[in-house]
Structure formats: structure tokens, C-alpha cells
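RECORD TYPE: inverse folding
INPUT: C-alpha cells
STRUCTURE:
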């Protein structure tokens, strides 16, 4: 689409950069941009500040207006917007195309792309692929760009992306759902796995899986796909692959000492290595990058050690499967912090893992009683507590723990019952731990 003088409604400015990136880019293309969001000016202050120097035609906050969806040439929708949203329906009934920010980018991107989706591990796998490609591109000056669901809009640096670069995109099920039939799909598609997730958004597991499969169905015969053959659901998705299905890099042939612990990270590394090899990276480049890969913030991140206890921030674990994988990783006693908003999960498998791998657990947030009941059904005498806040849950775990133990925030749930997102949850936990550590240090000094 030629955006010059076209009316575009950006629905949902949000906090992760996609809405801001779309609004800024569209304004630079000469579009007449209207931004609309249910949140008010105070809530969106950080995002609004990034639009001050751009010619935004209208800003409608605190609610949506029908005319912004009925009398426009395009609606760019935030992926968090549910498919049954009445304003999206108004646009569709008026014949207005509805797109997401990532589709705008991928259609305009001159470089080859690698897309990573899945219920768990997609962020780590995408970051691993980018790390390998960056190492490979050092000699040639080829750049690697990482974005998508990471919270950074690649529309911002689009003018600097060259045809010989590589772009790695983490793609959520909601983003894929909003992709139109005309959208370009990644040249290399990676699916890390598919287990029930976001059922509060998609409605059913079948609809959730169909959104993931869209990336495979939309590829061309010249494209390639990497499927997690160890995943019970995804291993049967070969029939959806339109291009070449690549054999998975044998996990046992990866570097013996990966920088990240856990079998799940070895599998993530195998998926990343398969995609990177297809992109032209050598075995030595793959080994060197994976051996030194530092991991991601708030993903099994050891943030400090206080009085002999190891404190881990795994706030990005928003599914039971992620928390189960985390629990299996530790070789020391674990006290678990879990809870938040249930996205339609069944907690039975998580409860079984908790009683098997943890010494005890403190549950917080809106589904704390549901988690407590699931654990009690497995082992009634298992040590656990419930509290409304994360701070209270941490205090309980601290009192129960001993030197040499690990206290692990790995929520297994969404954060939006009490926090804006999982990043804010993790940051608040880090500050909580820092304040607690300072108080412990002060108490130690005063006792001397």
C-alpha cells in the first residue's frame, strides 16, 4: 500500500513499542494517522512522549470511536486486541483491511527473515539464532536484526536494513492470527512446540494451534521450516509445511557445555542451530555462539545470592510448561514463587512437578487458590502458602529456606492481574530482592 495521504487508525498504542513504531513509521510515510487506545493519557505517558515530534493527526484516548474504524483506509491493530473486538468487527464490516504492525514490517523488509513461534522457548531460540548470525556476519559486515514479539518495532530501523542482512523475528500466536492471507511469511520458520496457551484469547486449543500453523501454510515452496520433532503436537505438522522441512540438528552433537542449563535449553539450541545452518552459518560459528550465549533477562536469571540463598528471576515463565522446565533444571533445593492470571491452563502437570522437584511453594495473585488446590490434590501435606502479593510470597519462601537453597520466581501464569506485563513483574521482584538484601546486610553490620 502507498500510505501517502491514506487514513490509518492505529488501535492500541501499548507499552511494548509496536504501536509507537507503527504510528511513527506510518507518519513518515505520509499517512494521516489516528491513534486510539482504551487507556488514558497518564497510563500511556511513556509511549505518548515518543510521538511528540511526529505529525499524528488525531489522538483518541480513554475509549474508541466508531468513525475511526469505519471511515479509514487501514486499521493497524495491537496483537493484544481479541479477534471478537466489536471495533475490529466494525472495520471488517466496512471493508477496511485490518493488519498488525509486524505484517507491515515483514512486507516491507528487504532482507531475509527467520520467524520463531511456539508455546515455550521462542524468545531464547530467536535470541540464540541472532547470536549465531551475528558471529557469522562479523567478517562480511552483514548485520543481524532481532525483533518482533521482543518489544521492539523493527519498523524504526527499516531504512537501515539491507538485502544481505538477516532479520530474526519472535512471533506470537496473536500476531500470526492477525496476519492477512496476503502477508509474507519468514523464509525460515521455526516452531519450538505447541501446548495449550492463551486459551482465554483464542478460545480453543484448535484455534491456537491454527494460528501457529499459519506461518507454515503461508510459506512458499522455496522456504524452509524447522519443527520440534520431540513435541507431541508439532511433530505431526509436517503436512502443513509448503517448503522444505529441515532435519533437526541432533541435540547430542551440540557443544557439551552450553552456557544455559537444562534439557529444554539444549533443545532450543538444536532448533537455533538448524535454522542457522540453513542460513549459511558454519559449525564452528554455531558452536562458538551457543557456548557463549548469555541467556535473556528474566529467564532463569540468577540475580543475586543472599545469606547463601540463590535468588532466580524467571518472570518470563508465563506457562506451566516453562515453570516445569525450570524446576527440572536445578540441582539444589527449590522454593517456588508462582501465580498470577490463569490463561486457561490446567495446572495438574505443574502441581505434579512442584511436589516432585520443589521443597515448597508460595502462590500469589488471582489464581493462588487454584494452584494451592492443584498441589493439595497431589500431596495434601506439601508445604505451601497463599498470599495476595508477590512480596508476601517471597517473604514466606525466605523464612522456609536455608543456605544453599534456591528461591525461584517462575510464575507459570500471566502477570496482568497485578502488573502491566511480565517485565514489570520481574523488575518489581528484582527491586524487592535488592531491598531485602540491603536490609539483611544492614542487620548483619549492626549485629557486629
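DESIGNED SEQUENCE:
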Amino acid at each position: 500500500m502507498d500510505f501517502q495521504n491514506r487514513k490509518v487508525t492505529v488501535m492500541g498504542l501499548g507499552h511494548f513499542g509496536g504501536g509507537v513504531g507503527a504510528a511513527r513509521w506510518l507518519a513518515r510515510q505520509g499517512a494521516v494517522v489516528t491513534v486510539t487506545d482504551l487507556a488514558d493519557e497518564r497510563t500511556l505517558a511513556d509511549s505518548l512522549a515518543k510521538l511528540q515530534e511526529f505529525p499524528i493527526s488525531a489522538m483518541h484516548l480513554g475509549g474508541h470511536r466508531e468513525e475511526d474504524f469505519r471511515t479509514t483506509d487501514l486499521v493497524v491493530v495491537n496483537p493484544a486486541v481479541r479477534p471478537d473486538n466489536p471495533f475490529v468487527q466494525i472495520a471488517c464490516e466496512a471493508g477496511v483491511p485490518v493488519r498488525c504492525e509486524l505484517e507491515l514490517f515483514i512486507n516491507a523488509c528487504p532482507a531475509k527473515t527467520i520467524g520463531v513461534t511456539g508455546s515455550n522457548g521462542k524468545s531464547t531460540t530467536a535470541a540464540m539464532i541472532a547470536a549465531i548470525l551475528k558471529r557469522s556476519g562479523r567478517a562480511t559486515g552483514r548485520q543481524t536484526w532481532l525483533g518482533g514479539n521482543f518489544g521492539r518495532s523493527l519498523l524504526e530501523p527499516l531504512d537501515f536494513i539491507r538485502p544481505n542482512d538477516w532479520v530474526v523475528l519472535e512471533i506470537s500466536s496473536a500476531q500470526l492470527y492477525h496476519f492477512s492471507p496476503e502477508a509474507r511469511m519468514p523464509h525460515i520458520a521455526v516452531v519450538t512446540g505447541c501446548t495449550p496457551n492463551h486459551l482465554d484469547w483464542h478460545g480453543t486449543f484448535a484455534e491456537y494451534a491454527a494460528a501457529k500453523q499459519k506461518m507454515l501454510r503461508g510459506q512458499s515452496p522455496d522456504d524452509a521450516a524447522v519443527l520440534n520433532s520431540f513435541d507431541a503436537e508439532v511433530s505431526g505438522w509436517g503436512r502443513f509445511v509448503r517448503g522444505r522441512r529441515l532435519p533437526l540438528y541432533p541435540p547430542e552433537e551440540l557443544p557439551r557445555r552450553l552456557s544455559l542449563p537444562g534439557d529444554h535449553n539444549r533443545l532450543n539450541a538444536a532448533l537455533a542451530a538448524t535454522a542457522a545452518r540453513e542460513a549459511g552459518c558454519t559449525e564452528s560459528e554455531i558452536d562458538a555462539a551457543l557456548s557463549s550465549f548469555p541467556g535473556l533477562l528474566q529467564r532463569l536469571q540468577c540475580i543475586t545470592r543472599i545469606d547463601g540463598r540463590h535468588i532466580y528471576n524467571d518472570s518470563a515463565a508465563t506457562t506451566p510448561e516453562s515453570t516445569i522446565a525450570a524446576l527440572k533444571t536445578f540441582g539444589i533445593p527449590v522454593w517456588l514463587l508462582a501465580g498470577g492470571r490463569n490463561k486457561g491452563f490446567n495446572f495438574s502437570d505443574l502441581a505434579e512437578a512442584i511436589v516432585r522437584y520443589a521443597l515448597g511453594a508460595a502462590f500469589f495473585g488471582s489464581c493462588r487458590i487454584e494452584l494451592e488446590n492443584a498441589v493439595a490434590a497431589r500431596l495434601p501435606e506439601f508445604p505451601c502458602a497463599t498470599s495476595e502479593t508477590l512480596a508476601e510470597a517471597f517473604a514466606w519462601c525466605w523464612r522456609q529456606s536455608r543456605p544453599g537453597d534456591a528461591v525461584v520466581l517462575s510464575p507459570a501464569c500471566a502477570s496482568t492481574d497485578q502488573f502491566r506485563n511480565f517485565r514489570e513483574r520481574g523488575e518489581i521482584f528484582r527491586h524487592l530482592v535488592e531491598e531485602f538484601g540491603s536490609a539483611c546486610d544492614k542487620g548483619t553490620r549492626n549485629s557486629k
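NOTES: Residues 364 and 392 are 8 Å apart (CA to CA).
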